[in-house]
Specification:
Helix content is 60%, strand content 2%. With 487 residues, it is mainly α.
């Protein structure tokens, strides 16, 4: 039998250049990369893996994941997860499920249109990884529904829930942006930036919080996910090194890294920040500490500094991101608390212990945010009576860095005014204005003046027609609503 290396080399020879159709016929202009390389066939994936080995390794991970799930059910661990952590999973699980699913779709596209045979093979394998991660999250949702039925919402159509509810629009816009980029930009954005710099927040810091609050299944699932991320990171770093050998690509790669660093920062701040700082009763690490360790020390001082030999610089808006970290999760929690009646999970007032921990971890918390919660505890009515201004890039409210000093930056383009929550989002729009121009009404306008029962069904927070805390609407109550294909 031939050695494994010989089999791997054979897979590289599967590429061919069609002679019976033009290149435009199988790689349309909109999916052709702008990166210049003398010969893409010479690029090698650092993780060369045979399909047979891949299946064996992933099967072992699945066995361990389901063994922990089974043990949790048998010994009652799932039913003893801290109630506040269950509230975190009500929001986080759906976001994670469809983030992974969208990432799967994105890598299928890269596997089709990437110019290098080795990238196409690696992206095909990564697409299978992302699909497995999504399915693991579905299994976890099943466990929660069985053992924590109270309020653990499972709409009849979870994908519609993700695509329509305002809470998920920042997450959705991020991954739809990734799915519609230059295929090599998708590798830089996903593999180099998102997975190298930010997934440790998702798959190490967040699981540590889960285990500290009794959710061992969540911890085990994400240990198996993070082992896949190692392979994904290596692909991103290898692609970056290869294309940076040509100095003509430096400006493009720098812009892509700057863009995706900011988009990742804004998304993870809003999604993971509260999961580390507010939801858990037992808090092993703050979002600020995790960001400093994994993003600043490992990514900026590690990977980016290594690539500085090719001229790559730290991300353009790094200083702004660092300044926002002091306030970001607190701003998000205040926004969620004000909108709590349109959510399906509990956004609690921080306890005395929570506030003391937050003051210790965030030196500016007491002077900026503690007073807000003191007023809430004293009876101040905090209830959003209108939709906030939403950033036209990240689709999060324009309440950063913190509500009393919120930023809203206007840009006029093609007869319309656009608003942005930060210099980072504004810069992204100005680079690619045509990509981010509005094709549909913002959700606030789309849902304006609609009956609350109708809105509840459209957002899929009450698939049987019963809004949160409300009564079931009569049959035939809901009017038909044309839904734009991209909404």
């Amino acid at each position: 039998m031939k050695p494994v290396e010989q089999y791997q080399r054979l897979t590289h020879s599967l590429h061919w250049d069609p002679t019976y159709v033009s290149e435009d016929a199988y790689i349309p202009d909109e999916w052709r990369t702008a990166v210049t390389m003398p010969d893409w066939k010479q690029f090698n994936d650092p993780f060369q893996i045979l399909f047979e080995d891949y299946i064996r390794i992933q099967a072992e991970k699945e066995d361990k994941f389901h063994a922990v799930r089974d043990a949790g059910a048998r010994f009652g661990h799932i039913s003893r997860v801290d109630p506040r952590w269950v509230e975190a999973m009500k929001s986080f699980n759906t976001a994670l499920t469809y983030s992974e699913y969208y990432n799967y779709r994105g890598h299928v596209r890269v596997a089709r249109f990437a110019p290098a045979p080795a990238i196409r093979v690696a992206s095909m394998v990564q697409a299978m990884d992302e699909r497995r991660h999504s399915e693991a999250a579905v299994f976890q949702a099943k466990d929660y529904v069985k053992y924590h039925k109270s309020g653990f919402l499972v709409p009849k159509d979870r994908l519609a829930f993700f695509e329509r509810h305002w809470y998920f629009q920042g997450d959705r816009s991020f991954f739809e942006d990734l799915m519609t980029t230059d295929p090599i930009e998708a590798i830089i954005g996903t593999n180099l930036v998102f997975e190298t710099a930010f997934t440790n927040l998702l798959f190490i810091a967040a699981p540590a919080a889960g285990v500290a609050n009794g959710d061992y299944g969540f911890g085990q699932a994400h240990l198996t996910v993070q082992s896949d991320e190692t392979r994904h990171m290596a692909l991103g770093q290898a692609v970056a090194r290869a294309i940076l050998q040509n100095e003509d690509n430096l400006e493009l790669v720098q812009d892509w890294m700057d863009k995706w660093f900011w988009r990742c920062h804004r998304l993870l701040l809003a999604v993971v920040g509260p999961v580390l700082d507010y939801f858990p009763k037992n808090k092993p690490v703050s979002y600020k500490e995790a960001f400093q360790r994994y993003v600043v020390e490992d990514f900026i001082y590690g990977y980016v500094s290594e690539l500085s030999q090719f001229g790559l610089k730290p991300p353009r808006h790094l200083d702004q991101a660092l300044a926002e970290i002091e306030h970001g999760s607190h701003t998000v929690w205040r926004d969620l608390y004000a909108s709590r009646n349109s959510l399906w999970f509990d956004v609690h007032q921080p306890t005395h212990e929570d506030l003391e921990w937050l003051k210790e971890k965030y030196p500016e918390f007491e002077g900026t945010h503690a007073g807000f919660w003191e007023e809430v505890a004293n009876g101040m009515d905090v209830q959003a009576d209108s939709a906030p201004m939403i950033c036209d890039i990240c689709h999060f409210p324009c309440t950063f860095p913190e509500p009393t000093t919120a930023v809203a930056l206007p840009v006029d383009f093609d007869g319309e005014r656009y608003w942005f929550c930060s210099e980072g989002c504004k810069w992204i729009f100005e680079r690619e204005s045509n990509k981010y121009r509005r094709h549909i009404e913002p959700s606030a306008l789309l849902l304006a003046d609609k009956d609350p029962l109708w809105v509840a069904q459209f957002l899929n927070i009450a698939p049987d027609g019963r809004p949160l805390g409300g009564t079931k609407a009569p049959d035939g109550y809901f009017p038909a609503m044309p839904v734009p294909a991209t909404f």
